[in-house]
Amino acid sequence: MRSRRPKPGYGVADRPAPQVYSIAAHRGFADALVAGLIPRYAEPDFGLARLTLLLPSRRAERIVTEAFVRLSGAGLLLPRMAVVGDLDLDETLGPLLDPLGAGEDIPTAADPAHRWLRLAALLGEEMGAEAPNTPGLLRLAFEAGRTMDRLAIEGIELGDLLQERVTGIVGELADHWKNSTRLFARVEARWLAELEARGAVDPPERRNRLFDHAARRWHAAAPATPLVAAGITSASPALARLLRVISETPRGAVILPDLDLSLDPAVWDALGSAGAPAAAGDPPFGAADALTHPQYHLKLLLGRMGVARDEVEPWHRAGLAAAPPERSRAISNLFLPAAASAGWVALPAAQRRLSGVRLMQSAHPGEEAQAIAILIREALEQPERRVTLVTPDRGLAARVVAHLRRWDILADDTAGLPLPQTAAGRVLLQLAEVAGHGAAPVALLALLEHPLVHRDATRAAWLEHARMLDLALRGPRPAPGLTPLRDAVERMPKGNGAAEFRAWWSEVDATIAPLIDWPDNLPLAEALGRLCEVGEALCGAELWAQADGRALSALVEELRGAAEAVGTTLAPDELTAVLRDAMDRVAVRPPWGGHPRVAIYGLLEARMSRADLVICGGLTEGSWPASPSPEPLLPPAVLRALGVPSGEFRIGLAAHDLAGALGAPEVVLSWADRDEAGPVIPSRFVLRVEALLGELAEAHREHRAVELARSIDRAAPAPLYPRPAPRPSAA
């Protein structure tokens, strides 16, 4: 069981006033942040080298660095930038935490792959005969690990599950929830006992301890150099305590994105308790809390920091791509809670107008992608104009990238491509399919004709022989194994090129033989070794040469080491599903080299970014916002009682992402009426925009780009070809 440690508490009477600021949505966060940091902290000869800047992610670090490049003029020494989610934060901050290297000995973090496989083994032991197959068990283990992380981030320990208020709820639930809750508690107890024996902790627990150590250190002795935390919206208790301490350091500051300081106090109070229940014993999140509001998570963060909204001051600078100040007021009105939104009917047109915001409705995703590509193409006609597409739909992003190639515009989807969709990832999956299906013809031919296989001067002959094998295997599917394939090759007529083909097949036979005739249960580490051996024999160094190959190599080595330590075994026909699940969680991000004024972001990557034109694509229910995913082991009632935000909390984060995007000078909100499966519902955010605009909505419609998208591939009708009418001469 995770050992309880005292929560850091600091005196209140002698606390200095916190220095907390907010950058409004219309100002552009990264550019406004840098525009204020330079005059505030820059020193002659040293620039900002003495400043330490804490940021939420690596992507935010890159965006802020680009803002420094734009605004630094003749050059500037940049500040030290650290990411708060980094497990090596203590090494990054170095002397700021431990000037003499005598700090706390914080345990190392457990390897995620090892935890995943070990949790699957523990679940299998606890479930016994009721355990699913290996892929299902590994999926359940991954979800159990995510639940453990959510509890750890909120500072909830295993003992909290045994409190009377929680056990009373469990006793009233259905039997399957009772059993799953007990299963989760037993598995977590065994896992935490193993961690304690090894002297390790889970990654969120290590981050919490790093935050608490930094908070204690800086509260006892403030650093001599300034500290600034910018763009952080995570409301975990440990991080909130650290941010409070940073805001109290002599030259420190906490700078929040898009906190609405003009929101009516009654509306702010109507958002709910936000982690601060009115009475002792009440749940941290009330039943009436507006979890889906974009300001709710910021209210939760301020509450855990012990900072009132009245203590937050507006940031004093604006960015390069700032929108009119009226935009922030309109955004505030747009996301009012349900009860307060009744006041829309009384708002004058000036407070409902979203100048610079257009609504684009398409018939289907293909048309939407083409229309977005046209808007990007038009925007690039203006010098120095930057354009960004923000969408959670990676399929839509891929379509836009493909359409832009029509005009030789190379746009990179910085959210990345799932590893199974890359060339190297497909090789490994096709190798696993060959092993799992006993060299079935479809899987084998897909592997042999893969673009990375024999990518050299002999590829033309290789493909010709692969096509001959395709002809030889036409007909009923042969039995598993290589013997039926050898018989089919022998039955081929001995004509022109037959000798070369048989020699080629002998080479293929010897190469793929290690994938055939596996035992019923093969160690995962050995299976990965065989797949890599055959993959290198077919593809050579090309398999690992590019970014996707390097990502695949890192994943394989991580899984192989963890599988050897845990002893994971599986059947050959389970290998493809296991590898696909593991690879789906790896995104391959493109290297530098795309168009300098075009960016395509996911929701996480888009935070803190800004452009002159922002296109928000894929605004449909289930996409933006995404559908909440239920926890498979702990029931929602137990999570609420423990103080874990429900799935609706993520809808509020998605709303905050859209509110930040709406702060750009020009915005296009785009959605399609249907997707590949059928009709879809426009996002609730789009419906709010239309309701707020009312009779003004028609003036905001973007029809031209959609019409161009429909006509760009529509050729002029060809004239009718006259029907032949032969009339031979009577003579």
What would you say this structure looks like, in words?
This protein is 46% helix and 8% strand. With 731 residues, the protein is an alpha/beta fold. The protein has a 6-stranded parallel β-sheet with strand order 3-2-6-7-1-8. The longest helix is centred in the first third of the chain and has 24 residues. The termini are far apart.
Question: Can you describe this structure in just a few lines?
Answer:
This protein is of the alpha/beta class. The protein is built from 29 helices and 17 strands. The N terminus is likely disordered.
Query: For the record, what is the CATH homologous superfamily label of the largest domain?
Result: P-loop containing nucleotide triphosphate hydrolases
Average pLDDT works out at 88
Broad shape: globular
Helix content: 40-55%
CATH class of the largest domain: Alpha Beta
Helices and strands: which structural class? alpha/beta
CATH architecture assignment name of the largest domain? 3-Layer(aba) Sandwich
The first-to-last residue Cα distance is 109 Å
Major beta sheet, strand line-up: 3-2-6-7-1-8
Using only C-alpha atoms, the radius of gyration works out to: 30 Å
- Counting DSSP E segments of at least 2 residues, the number of strands comes to 17
Which helices and strands occur, and which strands form pairs?
Layout: E1 20-23, H1 29-41, E2 52-55, H2 58-71, E3 80-83, H3 89-93, E4 108-109, H4 112-127, H5 134-153, H6 164-171, H7 175-198, E5 200-201, H8 203-220, E6 227-230, H9 237-248, E7 253-257, H10 265-270, H11 296-305, E8 313-314, H12 326-334, H13 349-352, E9 357-362, H14 365-379, E10 387-390, H15 394-404, E11 417-418, H16 423-436, H17 441-448, H18 459-472, H19 483-490, H20 498-512, E12 522-523, H21 524-539, H22 542-545, H23 547-566, E13 569-570, H24 575-584, E14 587-588, E15 598-601, H25 603-606, E16 613-616, H26 636-642, H27 648-661, E17 666-672, H28 684-693, H29 704-711
Parallel strand pairs: 1-7, 1-8, 2-3, 2-6, 4-5, 6-7, 9-17, 10-15, 10-16, 16-17
Antiparallel strand pairs: 11-14, 12-13
